[in-house]
Design a protein that fits this description.
Length: 332
Amino acid sequence: MKPLARYASLANYVDVASKLGLDPTQLIRDCGLDPASIDLQDRWVPAAAIAEVLERSAAATERDDFGLALVERRRLSNLGPLSLVIREEPDVRSALRILMRYHRMYNEAVHARMIDRDGICSLMLSIDVGQPAQLRQSVDLAVGVLYRLLKDFLGPDWRPIAVSFSHAAPNHSDTYRRLFGAVARFDRGFDGISFPTSDLDAPNAMSDPLLRSYAQQFLESMAAPDSTTQHRVRELIELLLPTGRCSVDQVALSLGVDRRTVHRKLAAEGLTFSSLLDSTRAELAAHLVANRAHSLIEVSDMLAFSSPSNFSRWFKKQFGTSPKEWRLQNAR
């Protein structure tokens, strides 16, 4: 399957795009994503679609620094569960090793390698979205996020030897200067950051040794299921049901494959799309019906039933009681 990325990759996108005069909702939709779900930071979508959003935004605003504009508002917490572990590592070297080992929890398209030679450490980044695509903005975003992460560890006054980009110098250089100062380099042989090897051993002031083992256990438990087709498809079903577009074809499109591949991979895990759709819908139904925040008519719509009566019949078949009775017995 083609690489996926979490919606967290577009953190702060709506604010930045709006301030630059774009209609972020329409642009996100044009790239095949659901604007209503962009705040669901842990949802997976095709990495190619994320890259397309960034490139189209840069072109529409005529700002070749668009990717970096997102970096200025990023926080360590945007890395999700990964941030909980990284902040507890004792030094920069350990934090980077964790980041490179578990980066697929955040974005499957980003790849990093570390070369330590002659007293200089070079962190080299590359991006592969599984198809030909313009990736300049995605690269800038990834390099910028890594730079901000290093500054979190090494302090606001830290400066690397160089922040390198394989692309040409930008037309809009203010953001590069504001973020990187005078160390930004263009037309280089790689995308990444170079700094003294001694910086790798700098202690992490944020780290609490007593919490480190717990944080790593938490990360390992979070990382395990994400690689299964079942997990990916279940997340997409939850995402697509309220849109009324939850089908195997739409799920396949979101995963960047054809429907036969979805069926084949689910079959290898002993599942069918229909059975996974039914079980996911039933789990959501039990949760939504028990929660009085939504009317039963709204729940019917959220679960993509054609009418409340069809929803009631399906619910009674699944749970042996009507939605109304279930709510009375299980209301929260």
